[in-house]
Design brief:
heterodimer; A: mainly alpha; B: mainly alpha; Cytochrome Bc1 Complex, Chain D, domain 2; 13 helices; 5 strands; globular
Chain lengths: 146, 307
């Protein structure tokens, strides 16, 4: 238990150094996903040409995702299955190994993308496509319908 | 004493009426197929066009093996379980193998899609969304048949449905059909606008969006005035969202945002598609953009229902 709490604390610190007070895992997960959503917006708009190509911004966005991915699976301790409007399905805890494997793939894919040198928006789009497949793969089975 | 024969007469009459009603009721709830003339009137199908109809109709979302991706979605082996208030429905094998629909002729396929009736003249449960497919054009049915009969074969034999009484009585589906199976438009939109008409066709017909996005009554029929207003997830936790213009979230999306969502799986806030909608979105992403634009236009034209 103590280890879990340490992990959560570390995750919380890593994800938002700005949040001073301790938050519930459910809230930390939601905040983490909002960060990923923000990074997704940057990449999607760039890939579609709605915003100018910016290699550094693309790498930063993939890095944000990767930072979240590194500790995300730690935010699902036993006891955080319900409450705080969580959209996590109970299947996460029933299939924790598979859930962790999916998060690990997200981590690996975002690390690979963050290490790339992008020449144009098309290259960003291709890398984004690979990374974005992880969103659906996990949300398809582990997030409640909404 | 004179009253007695009158009473008997009345009883006999009442019994007769009851028997006639019973016969009438049985006739009403009888499984039906299309007439011979109707079958002969179908146009020739085209497999290439049928592929678009296949994705628009979402066949693979239930009939491919659970979790199938990409080309594996074309193997319609069945086996997906839909755990509903009526019991568990198991999607059958509809690949063109002897274990699936390999022995079917076009008549069997058209009867299934448009009448919800099997080759053995039994009712299908409306978990197979023929209540929507009944609105499909003859051309689309013919094209889809040509596409599906050429798909890979699976010898999988999924387990049977496990339904709760009284829904386990298949004949009861005849009551559902008598009450709810028709081809009338779900809502009135300006069908002089070709884009809206196409959107209405895709959403109300092959796309069968209302099957999950419209709340149902205890008999399994759509609740009047609630078209696409969302409801309990028929298959687990959570809510199926309201997608009318009155919806809290989706109602605020622009047409192009709806198109983007269907094409990419990302909401305007860059949340990703989830749950059973993942598979639906992946089907939609295979349609021409003009079809996604038609769907978006229609979703903006349906009556707003607020939650």
């Amino acid at each position: 238990m103590k280890r879990t709490i340490t992990a959560i604390t570390l995750a919380a610190t890593a994800i938002f150094a700005t949040v001073a007070i301790a938050a519930e895992p459910q809230e930390l997960r939601q905040e983490a996903m909002k960060q990923v959503g923000g990074a997704t917006g940057v990449l999607s708009k760039m890939a579609k040409g709605e915003t100018p190509f910016d290699a550094a911004a693309a790498v930063a966005a993939f890095t944000t995702m990767n930072t979240v991915a590194k500790t995300y699976a730690d935010l699902f301790p036993v006891g955080s299955e319900t409450g705080f409007e969580t959209e996590a399905k109970p299947e996460i805890w029933a299939n924790m190994d598979d859930f962790k494997a999916k998060v690990a793939k997200f981590e690996a894919d975002t690390a690979a993308a963050a290490a790339m040198t992008f020449a144009d928006a098309g290259a960003v789009g291709a890398a984004f496509g690979t990374v974005a497949a992880n969103c659906k793969a996990c949300h398809e089975v582990y997030r409640v319908a909404k | 004493m004179a009253a007695l024969p009158a009473l008997w007469k009345w009883l006999a009459g009442a019994a007769g009426v009851a028997a006639l009603c019973g016969v009438g009721f049985l006739l009403v709830i009888q499984p039906r197929g299309l007439t011979e003339e109707r079958i002969l009137g179908f146009p020739a199908g085209d497999a290439a066009r049928g592929e678009t109809v296949f994705w628009a109709s979402g066949c693979a979302s239930c009939h491919a093996a659970p979790g199938a991706k990409d080309d594996a979605k074309l193997l319609l082996a069945g086996g997906l379980e839909l755990k509903t208030d009526f019991g568990t429905f198991v999607a059958p094998n509809i690949s063109p193998s002897p274990r699936g629909i390999g022995g079917w002729g076009f008549r069997d396929f058209a009867n299934a899609m448009l009448k919800g009736t099997s080759p053995e003249m039994a009712h299908y449960y409306p978990s197979f969304p023929y209540g929507s497919y009944a609105r499909m054009t003859d051309q689309d049915i013919a094209d889809l048949w040509e596409f599906m009969r050429a798909l890979p074969q699976s010898d999988n034999v999924p387990p049977p449905n496990a339904l709760n009484f009284p829904f386990s009585i298949r004949m009861g589906v005849g009551v559902w059909k008598a009450l709810y199976l028709d081809t009338a438009p779900r809502v009135a939109v300006d069908t002089a606008d070709a884009k809206l008409a196409r959107g209405q066709y895709l959403v109300e017909g092959p796309g069968h969006c209302g099957e999950c996005h419209t709340p149902r009554d205890a008999m399994g029929g759509f609740i009047s005035g609630q078209w696409l207003a969302g409801g309990d997830n028929p298959d687990g936790e959570g809510r199926i969202p309201n997608i009318t213009p009155g919806a809290k979230d989706v109602g605020a999306w622009s047409e192009s945002e709806i198109v983007d969502y269907l094409a990419t799986g990302f909401t305007p806030e860059f949340d990703s598609v989830g749950g059973s909608m993942v598979s639906v979105q992946q089907n939609m992403a295979r349609l021409p953009k003009s079809d996604l634009e038609a769907i978006a236009a229609y979703l903006k034209a349906v009556p707003a229902v607020s939650q």
